[in-house]
Amino acid sequence: GRDFIRLLQGVAKIPEFIDLWRDILYSPQKLSPSFTGILQILSVRTSRRFLASRLTPDMEARLSFLATQVKFGQHQRYQTWFAKRFFTGPETQTLVCDCIRYICG
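^ that's the sequence the OP posted. Answer follows.
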């Protein structure tokens, strides 16, 4: 779904992917007679399994705890701890997005 398109956009300038990207955008029937284009791909929901793939098992367990065990209004302490523990590296910005998508997925 959307994640496939997101990943494909990241590699669309690599020579091996240029033709595929161009066909998806401009000639979808070249890939398959029943393929209608990028909107068809975007309408497919991303599996939760793929959303979790960027998270460590520890992160997934902590997010699950935050979502199911922490009472509303008492979350600040846990959120601060989670951020200090997991959002310190250079990939923080994309990891925050992946966590949000995992929670919402």
